[in-house]
Design goal:
With about 220 residues, the chain is of the alpha/beta class. It is built from six helices and six strands. It comes from Dipteronia sinensis. This is RNase H type-1 domain-containing protein. GO terms for molecular function: nucleic acid binding; RNA-DNA hybrid ribonuclease activity.
Length: about 220
């Protein structure tokens, strides 16, 4: 029944794409596409239920600085409902909470929230590698991304290729731990992601950024 409902939704979505944007998928491709979306949703839902029922559920607390001499990366994605774009926010801070690097990136394309969150983490790690930084800790507010990155099980989701890139980048920038935190502990990264959506532009700061972006950290 779930697959049947997804196919019906896919036909309706494809019809709207053809009608309003003059582009769409072939019928055969459409079936495989909606099947992949369903598999991704079911996998994410199971991971979320598992994480909520475990003792390692994310604590509702604010941002904590890394140990002395270390750096921490926080990333987030802002995904407007029904849009064909999303924003990436990546913030690197030191043990005193001072800004080292911050990025807001505007991205065109329609992806699931899980993929957007994973791409945000990958971009943040790439930013650290590009500037030759060693990041001891990486944090996101998406439990499914944390699970996908740290899981030793075979990944069958469409986001697997991003998780593979993330794992490689974590080794490149010496990440010792990648974990999920509460939304209230990831506010600065969220502000940067939201900025890129509202401005439709990319921004890069080194050493400082507008004070308003540090609210709700």
């Amino acid at each position: 029944m779930a697959r049947f409902a997804m196919v019906l939704w896919g036909i309706w979505f494809n019809r709207n794409q053809l009608l309003h944007k003059k582009c769409g998928r072939d019928p055969g491709e459409l079936v495989y596409w909606v099947a992949g979306l369903l598999e991704e949703f079911q996998g994410t839902y199971k991971s979320l239920l598992s994480s909520l029922s475990s003792d390692s559920a994310v604590a509702k607390e604010g941002w904590h600085p890394p140990p002395l001499g270390c750096l921490k990366l926080n990333t987030d994605a802002a995904v407007p409902p029904g849009g064909n774009c999303f924003g990436i926010g990546a913030v690197i801070r030191d043990s005193e909470g001072n800004l080292v690097l911050a990025l807001s990136k505007f991205v065109l394309g329609y992806f699931s929230v899980e993929v957007c969150e994973a791409l945000a983490l990958r971009k943040g790690l790439s930013l650290a590698k590009q500037h030759g930084l060693s990041i001891g800790w990486a944090e996101v507010d998406a439990v499914n991304v944390d699970t996908g990155v740290n899981s030793s099980q075979l990944c069958r989701s469409t986001v697997c290729f991003v998780f593979n890139d993330i794992s490689a980048l974590c080794r490149d920038v010496w990440v010792s731990e990648c974990k999920a935190i509460s939304i209230c502990g990831n506010g600065v990264a969220h502000n940067h992601a939201s900025l890129s959506v509202s401005s439709s532009r990319d921004h890069l700061w080194q050493g400082h950024c507008p004070f308003s972006l540090f609210s709700g950290c």
